[in-house]
Amino acid sequence: MSFKVFVDGQEGTTGLRINEYLAARNDVEVLRIDADKRKDAAERARLLNAADVAFLCLPDDASREAAAMITNPNTCLIDASTAHRTVPGWAFGLPELAPGQRDKIRAAKRIANPGCHASAFILAVRPLVDAGLLSADAGVTATSITGYSGGGKSMIAQYEAGGDARLMSPRPYALGLAHKHLPEMMAHTGLRMAPVFMPIVGNFYKGLAVTVPLHLSQLRAGTTPEQVQAALVAHYAGERFIRVMPLRDADTLNEGFFDVQACNDSNRVDLFVFGSGTQILVMARLDNLGKGASGAAVQAMNVHLGLDEGLGL
Ligand SMILES: NC(=O)C1=CN([C@@H]2O[C@H](COP(=O)(O)OP(=O)(O)OC[C@H]3O[C@@H](n4cnc5c(N)ncnc54)[C@H](OP(=O)(O)O)[C@@H]3O)[C@@H](O)[C@H]2O)C=CC1
Ligand SMILES: CC(=O)N[C@@H](CCC(=O)OP(=O)(O)O)C(=O)O
């Protein structure tokens, strides 16, 4: 059995990466749009409706447009954009989120995949909320260090053009404290207050790590770093793409430094708890184009179609 797949936005950063994943597979037939018709609404609509699964690798507005073009009840959309991540009727494409999430992805014809920062944040925080260690009313903060491919073609071009000394050093952004991932971070962790979130983009292509610093006093009374790490281990037991590292994992550090690129070219997420005295850092690392986008989209397709979840990843 071969499934028909269309990638709307096939020439973009996430679309190209999805096509690389799919190229090695013989169980999917990729429907290609002619280069000169990439933005032709009628041709996109035809291919979207001809597909069993269509990936939307588009800016938010174009994703909303694509969703409105579907008339075939068989087509399953997997949207990589921010457009539908907290919209009712769309399943959140993160199978490891909680028990039952895979069933939702299997049953849904509309799947919204998480943002790259949001994936890491949610995977780090959700188990602590579910285990009752972190109150849904807690006020948390997070930083994210990301490679520039997270900004898509235009940011890649900016960095790769060279000649701008300002791009050589890491650049904090979203300082208006309204990053577009905040709504999904809240909706899918259960946190009632938006985290104070500062992403930082650096002069490297890909790789991302979100850090959530916590005072143990912010957690349930008496919580230890060991219990935080154990909650992550328990939540992700049996998850093939999630690796919970030992508490204060010294092996992970290279002479004391953390490598944000160590999950690159994989669909893996590594989770860490570092702790000393009354403070801990919970960290999640992933490839923003792997589990942060294209790998996650292919994984969601595998789950939806009832295939081996790791196929092609
Ligand atoms: N890069 C990343 O790490 C991640 C990205 N995402 C999200 O995935 C989506 C795609 O991102 P990314 O691939 O990085 O972005 P890119 O800018 O690299 O690619 C977007 C593609 O969409 C095309 N496009 C724009 N408008 C239309 C339209 N109306 N019809 C058809 N095609 C159109 C663009 O065409 P053209 O080539 O002409 O510009 C481009 O090829 C975005 O919503 C992004 O936020 C999600 C997680 C991580
Ligand atoms: C470096 C950089 O700019 N990264 C992007 C996140 C990429 C991503 O996850 O985008 P979507 O939410 O649109 O899917 C940002 O912070 O806006």
TrEMBL record:
Gene3D superfamilies: Dihydrodipicolinate Reductase, domain 2, NAD(P)-binding Rossmann-like Domain. The keyword Cytoplasm applies. Pathway: Amino-acid biosynthesis; L-arginine biosynthesis; N(2)-acetyl-L-ornithine from L-glutamate: step 3/4. InterPro entries: AGPR (IPR050085), AGPR_dimerisation_dom (IPR058924), AGPR_type-2 (IPR010136), NAD(P)-bd_dom_sf (IPR036291), Semialdehyde_DH_NAD-bd (IPR000534). It is an enzyme of class 1 (oxidoreductase). Keywords: Amino-acid biosynthesis, Arginine biosynthesis, Cytoplasm, NADP, Oxidoreductase. It catalyses: N-acetyl-L-glutamate 5-semialdehyde + phosphate + NADP(+) = N-acetyl-L-glutamyl 5-phosphate + NADPH + H(+). One of its GO terms (molecular function) is N-acetyl-gamma-glutamyl-phosphate reductase activity. It holds the Pfam family Semialdhyde_dhC_1. Residues 4-105 form the Semialdehyde dehydrogenase NAD-binding domain. It is found in: Cytoplasm. CDD domains: AGPR_2_C, AGPR_2_N. Its EC number is 1.2.1.38. The active site is at C116. NCBIfam families: argC_other (TIGR01851). Catalyzes the NADPH-dependent reduction of N-acetyl-5-glutamyl phosphate to yield N-acetyl-L-glutamate 5-semialdehyde. Belongs to the NAGSA dehydrogenase family. Type 2 subfamily. This is N-acetyl-gamma-glutamyl-phosphate reductase. It comes from Roseateles koreensis. The lineage of its organism: Bacteria, Pseudomonadati, Pseudomonadota, Betaproteobacteria, Burkholderiales.
